[in-house]
Every structure is written in C-alpha cells, then in structure tokens.
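Structural prep section.
Before we set up the soaks we want a predicted structure of the protein with NAP in place, mainly to decide which crystallisation condition to try first. Input record follows.
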Amino acid sequence: MDLGIKGRKAIVCASSKGLGRGCATALAEAGCEVVINGRDAGVLETVADEIRRATGAKIVAVAADVGTEAGRAALVAACPDADILVNNNGGPPWRNFRDIDHAALLEGVEANMIAPISLIQALIDGMIERKFGRIVNITSGSVKAPLSGLDLSSGARAGLTGFVAGVAREVAAANVTINQILPGAFDTDRLRKGSQGAAARTGKDFDEIWATRAADIPAKRYGTPGEVGALCAFLASAQAGYITGQNILIDGGAFPGAF
Ligand SMILES: NC(=O)c1ccc[n+]([C@@H]2O[C@H](COP(=O)([O-])OP(=O)(O)OC[C@H]3O[C@@H](n4cnc5c(N)ncnc54)[C@H](OP(=O)(O)O)[C@@H]3O)[C@@H](O)[C@H]2O)c1
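Run finished without errors. Recording the tokens verbatim:
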C-alpha cells in the first residue's frame, strides 16, 4: 500500500533502538524525511547511516535527551515544520512504588507525560495550518492492564492519554490526528534488561524467565520493532485521517478483554 506520505517530514523521538527505531525505519521506507534521536551520539549516527542505506531516505540525527527542555528544543529546531511526530522515550526503571521519591516521581512524569505534551504544543499549530498532522504516542499496554513495579510508567502514560484525548477532538477537523500505540511485550534491549533484572532479583535463569514470559502470550512469542513500525506508519498515513483519539494495543493477544 502506498501510504501517501512520501516527502512528509517526521520526528521520531528515542529512535536509535527498539520500538522507536522500528517506527523511524517504517516512515523512512514510506518515503518520509526522518529526524531520529537518542542520547548516545555515536550509536545514533551509526543507526542513521544504516536507515539511510536501507531506505534511501533523508535521515537527520539529533543527539539529545528528550526528557529535557533543551533536548526537545533541539528536536524542534531540526524540523520545525514536522508533519509527523512520534513521541517515544525510555521508560522509568522497575521499582517498588514505595521507593519512588519525589524527585523520581517528577522525572517519570517529565519523561513520559510532559515531554510528549511539550513537543505536541510546539509542533501542532504548524500541522493545523498545513491541514495535515499525524501524532503517534508510544505508551504501553500497562495503561490498560497494570504491571507491578512499572506504576510510574503506567501513571504518567495514562496522564498523557487523558490529556490528548480532548486535544485530539479539538484538532481533528484540521486533518491532524493523535493516537497512541500500546505495545505489549516486544523483543528489545529494554525488555531483555527487565528480564535480566528479574533474574537477578529472583535468582532464576534468564533464559527460563524469557521463555516463560513468551509462553504466557497467546501468540507465544514477543513482538518485533518492525511490527510496531508498520502500525505507526499506517497511523501516520494519508489513509488514517479518520482514526483519532484511539489507543491501539499491539500485544499478541495478551490483554484478555473483548474490547
Ligand atoms: N519493549 C517493550 O516490550 C515495551 C512494551 C511497552 C512499552 N514500551 C515502552 O516503549 C518505549 C521504548 O521501549 P524500547 O523497548 O524500544 O526501549 P529500548 O530498546 O531500550 O530503546 C530505547 C531508545 O530510546 C532512546 N532513549 C532512551 N532515553 C532517552 C532520552 N531520555 N532521550 C532520547 N532518547 C532516549 C535510547 O537511546 P539512548 O539510550 O542512546 O538515549 C534508545 O534508542 C519505552 O518507553 C518503553 O517503556 C516498551
């Protein structure tokens, strides 16, 4: 399918690895110019080269911490007229909710709620003027079904979800959409680190924990970043203009509800 976004400009936050990289690659394949981002400049430049070589797209690398105002300003400066914004970031570390102090609470809210809202505020009026905008927020299946130890992540992302639910309706008439992707378990560095942490906490073998978790998913496997990327590219497509304000699970059937 031609997604109708060739030549569109996209910013994909936190995209040197994992789900963000999957989204950046899929948008590049669809013909977009893509700003990619991560904090490690060396890794980012390597990934930019790899995506360029694989897709032929124009890729701009912005090494910055999206959890800071300066980092977000650098992203906006690199592409002030973005047509597509994919909000993504690292998630807060696994922690017992009792141990999250005030500073850590603020940091989690900044990273997973304030950062995406600030970028939306900076870019959405240009999208409205140009009568095309696609905003995709990568949140988590934990917004719908909590995961113990990731309470701050779930809470900050649920806050973002509530905030943009109204905004999505306010901008829909200008062909600007805002949707969330809610990933379940995907094979990325982050998920592997989570299972390594569980192995350290419980003394169990990593391979056993990793295999048991996959076996609990109805699809009996982890998702791939490419699968999130394909969903993201479709939500960013010209054809998806009538989908807005939605929270779309991609989890191999893990969430047990009928809807
Ligand atoms: N994987 C899953 O199963 C899953 C499920 C649900 C939700 N999620 C959420 O999806 C998001 C991405 O997860 P992932 O699994 O793709 O993680 P990942 O494989 O660890 O990749 C994270 C990416 O984000 C970048 N990054 C992290 N912190 C950043 C910051 N402050 N500023 C800019 N870039 C930053 C990293 O690069 P640098 O380290 O160089 O900055 C890297 O490119 C997370 O918020 C995670 O909680 C993941």
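Observations: The CA atoms of residues 117 and 203 lie 40 Å apart.
Flagged for discussion at group meeting.
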